Structures are given as C-alpha cells and as structure tokens.
Amino acid sequence: MPTASLILEYVKVLIWPAAIGLALYLAATLVAHRLTRPESAAIGTRAVSWDELNKGRAGKVTASIADAEELASLEAAPPANPVVHLQQAIRLVPSDYRDAARQISDHFRAGHVVIVDLAAADEATACRLVDFCSGTTLVSRGVFYQVSSTVVLLTPRID
C-alpha cells in the first residue's frame, strides 16, 4: 500500500493545484475576452456606422426626421368645442380686481360658465382681470373666448 499512498500524496501535492490554476486561468481568459469584445458581437448583431446607414438614402432619413418632428409638435386630439349651457352661465360686471378675481375663480371652479363684462372697470383693472382669466383657463384647461372688446367668456373643461 505504500504505492497507493504515494500516488494519493502525488495527486494532493501536484495535480489539484495545477487543476485549480488551470481553471482560474481559463476563467480569467474568458472574462477578459468578453470585456474586450464589443457588445454587438455578444448578442449576434453588428455595429452599423451612421455613414453606412445613410448611404444612398440621406434624403429619406432627413424627410423621416422632418415628419417625426412635425408629428411630435401636433396634439394627440384637437380640443373639443365647448358647449355653453346658458342656465349655468354667471355674468359678472366687476369694478374691483380683488372681489372680481375671487368671484371668477369660485364660479369657474364650481363648473359654471363665467361671462366677464369689463366695461365698468378701469383700463388697468381690466388688463389684470384679462390676465387672471386667461391664466385660470390655462391652468384648468378651460377655454377663454373674447366675445367683444370688453366681454370675455370662460368655459371650464368639459370631460
């Protein structure tokens, strides 16, 4: 049995370290190869340069980009025409900005159509109220109409 123990000792001392070293070397080589290889080669595709992509069809690409920009600038759906129910319309003839702004916002938030007649207000107050009304409709996605030079109509968003 001295031969069997000698062989076992030989395997322990020489073969196992060599096998572990070889496995580590192969793993390091595989990792290094994957890190230096481009990602497109790893998934089975090839990289295409911009010049190669546009070769012979630069006009089509430019036209496609222009079409995409035009489509992106359009709204998904045109805004619906609001329906005004006159029984829910509130007519205000403001002369003071603070009270008028409060009344406009209260009625507008309640879902009423608000008609604002600015004929009784001075020019500075009328300008401030027009700015307030346009901001109110913009934030709530309502609609702002100028009926005449001194009358504006605010309609809340209709779902």
User: How much of the residues is beta strand, in percent?
Assistant: 5-15%
Helix and strand run? HHHHEHEHEE
Report strand order across the widest sheet. 1-2-4-3
**What share of the residues lie within helices?**
55-70%
pLDDT averaged residue by residue: 74
What count of structural domains? 2
Tally the helices: what do you get? Answer: 6
Low-confidence stretches: none
State the major sheet: 4 strands, mixed
- Rg for CA atoms: 39 Å
Label the structural class.
Answer: alpha+beta
Ends: how far apart?
95 Å
| Cα shape | rod-shaped
Count of DSSP strands: 4
Topology diagram in text:
Blueprint: H1 2-36, H2 39-42, H3 50-54, H4 58-73, E1 89-92, H5 97-109, E2 113-117, H6 123-139, E3 143-146, E4 151-155
Parallel strand pairs: 1-2
Antiparallel strand pairs: 2-4, 3-4
Helix pairs in contact: 5-6
